[in-house]
Amino acid sequence: MANSYRKITINTDGGARGNPGPAACAFVARENGRVVCKKGFFLGETTNNVAEYSGIIEAYRWVLEGGKNVEEIVFEIDSELVVKQLNGFYRVKDKELIVLWNRVKDMEKKTNAKVFYVHVPRSKNKDADFLLNSVLDGLSIVSRHQKTSIT
To answer: What is the extent of the structural domain holding 88?
Structure first.
């Protein structure tokens, strides 16, 4: 049976060490302040912006794969650039980011939820940031060529 949520808040984050460099993304989903899912993913070598978009895509994948019924999703993201791009204030120029932007928008439509992208300071995104850095800090035990997730 699918889970139903009136409103979930999802903190996402992505980062690369070196830009481009070893990169990871993460998300933490909450309903009424209670964590309902948290995941981190090693992405291989890529840029910060690709990692930021990847965190949002992985969060959408979690929402869509479980057949969850969600009325409202609030994404809290510490990348002002990505928030402004997703809200239509900035145009996406980079070809790789255009592909990711389109994927996010397609996934957004599939949720049938009201979706909001909100910029938050890094200090309000600590859980997702901690998770992505945990993935990157654990690289010594993970093959750099293997997409890896932690929950």
So the answer is: 4-150
